[in-house]
Automatic annotation (TrEMBL):
Protein source organism: Candidatus Segetimicrobium genomatis
Protein name: DUF3084 domain-containing protein
Membrane spanning residue stretches: 6-26, 47-67
Coiled-coil ranges per UniProt: 78-105
Keywords: Coiled coil, Membrane, Transmembrane, Transmembrane helix
Stored InterPro entries: DUF3084
Alphabetized Pfam families for the sequence: DUF3084 (PF11283)
Length: 291
């Protein structure tokens, strides 16, 4: 029940009772021709009437303040409440502005993701054409499966992920030249696999061997590091999804390592290291350290 439904009748009854008592007192003073402060009886009656009105107001305020905490706030703390309300309204407006900015940022980010996905599809289309792949009846060289899926759906899935994502297009079947390339999509978190300076593999190489033999031994160690990274670093395009990552060796670094091993003229420890951070997307770039 609302407080006013109970409070208003009480105030009416109390005010009426006070007015009734005041009227009775005034009439009694008039009949007896009583005097207050040596005033004439008529003025005394007027004073009693004024006091009665004042009592009505005072009692009304007391009753309201005793019963209603909202009335006490409105009477004594109204300015403070108004200031707090204004501050809350300002904060709500700021929060709404932030939400609008975030929403616009999300839309912009989704648009950027979509453009990046479509750019990858375009690149895959160009590479497929170079390998003899032809368009289907709709002019599409790369066809996404399942049929109800779309590249916008892929962009939305990427947008939902909380980390950098690798989008990989994988041929879903063997494809002959002139046919469209049917693909499905794999999504991977692009995580740090090897930090710069990480030793990937190591082995003993004999510096007394011929230069060609030393070169092959170093490349064998590089290939071994690629096999150990299988499943962690993605293989390059146009290889099987089960293939290991391809280790990339700088030719000058390789020649320098071969020369250092050969100058040692004995068995030395060769470590295959990551010269820079390696992520899931690759490439697996390696170098050599001769101990």
């Amino acid at each position: 029940m609302e407080l006013g439904v109970l409070l208003i009748p009480i105030l009416i009854v109390v005010s009426g009772a006070i007015a009734l008592v005041g009227n009775a007192v005034g009439r009694n003073i008039g009949r007896r021709r009583l005097s207050l402060f040596q005033l004439r009886p008529r003025y005394t009656a007027q004073i009693v009437t004024v006091i009665t009105g004042m009592l009505i107001t005072i009692v009304t305020l007391i009753v309201v303040l005793l019963i209603s905490s909202e009335a006490r706030v409105a009477l004594f703390r109204l300015n403070a409440v108004l200031r707090q309300t204004h501050q809350l309204e300002e904060e709500i407006r700021r929060q709404e502005d932030r939400l609008k900015q975030l929403a616009l940022g999300d839309i912009a980010y989704l648009g950027a993701v979509r453009q990046r996905v479509l750019a990858d599809v375009e690149r895959a289309t160009d590479m497929a054409r170079e390998n003899g792949i032809g368009p289907d009846g709709h002019g599409d060289v790369v066809v996404l499966t399942p049929p109800r899926a779309s590249w916008d759906d892929i962009a939305h899935l990427v947008d939902l992920r909380e980390t950098d994502t690798v989008v990989r297009l994988v041929a879903s079947q063997n494809t002959l030249k002139g046919e469209p390339l049917t693909v499905f999509v794999q999504l991977f978190d692009n995580r740090l696999v090897y930090a710069q300076g990480t030793v990937l593999v190591e082995g003993i190489v004999d510096g007394r061997q011929a230069r060609e033999v030393i070169s092959r031994e170093l490349l064998r160690l590089a290939d071994q590091s690629a096999r150990l990274a299988r499943g962690r670093v993605l293989p390059p395009p146009f290889t099987l999804v089960t293939a290991p990552a391809a280790a990339q060796v700088d030719i000058d670094a390789h020649r320098a390592a071969v020369a250092k091993v050969q100058r040692a003229g004995r068995q030395v420890l060769v470590q295959v290291v990551a010269p820079r951070d390696v992520y899931t997307v690759g490439p697996l770039t390696v170098s050599f350290t001769v101990r």
